[in-house]
User: What shape does this take?
Amino acid sequence: AQSVAQPEDQVNVAEGNPLTVKCTYSVSGNPYLFWYVQYPNRGLQFLLKYITGDNLVKGSYGFEAEFNKSQTSFHLKKPSALVSDSALYFCAVSHNKLIFGAGTRLAVHP
Amino acid sequence: GAVVSQHPSRVICKSGTSVKIECRSLDFQATTMFWYRQFPKQSLMLMATSNEGSKATYEQGVEKDKFLINHASLTLSTLTVTSAHPEDSSFYICSARPGYATEAFFGQGTRLTVV
Assistant: This one.
């Protein structure tokens, strides 16, 4: 069975500092991995995905993620956080259906 | 990216009544759409997979008679919460994936409050 773990409920970062939101996965076969962001009372917005190819994936709003097969991880990163990045972030894995992690709330402080 | 539109964004209804939520793919056809439920400060729980022209596939523990899904066309799926109760109050989100994409796109969600 496929599953996704986001070990941190919340991540706090000062504006301008780098941020990392962690994600590990468990899936048989080659995974399709995704990051989505959710703002209050809104649906999810697609940020980036890993399907195949380069382990470092670049996405929207300056975010990137690194696929690490040996550690079964797909951590989300950004070199310099903005206050407007504060939101709820979901990691997801897809086999035949999309399964989400529990979500990590990112709080960027001025 | 592709656009998925969900309506209404917010609805309040009385206990015992039924509520219909629409999910439309605006610029692509979707043979499959997905319905999720999200409780406050929690993740999205997949409720069912909506299949155009056939019956929906429900996840374990989801009452198919309570949550009726109809996918009558390639651009529209509806979720009807029947005989709503306060415990059905939640945030419902639909998604669809265009045939040309590997990622899913989501509607803006519907906040249902049953009073």
About this structure: The radius of gyration of chain A is 13 Å. Chain A touches chain B at residues 32, 34, 36, 41-46, 49, 51, 90, 94, 97-103 (CB under 8 Å).
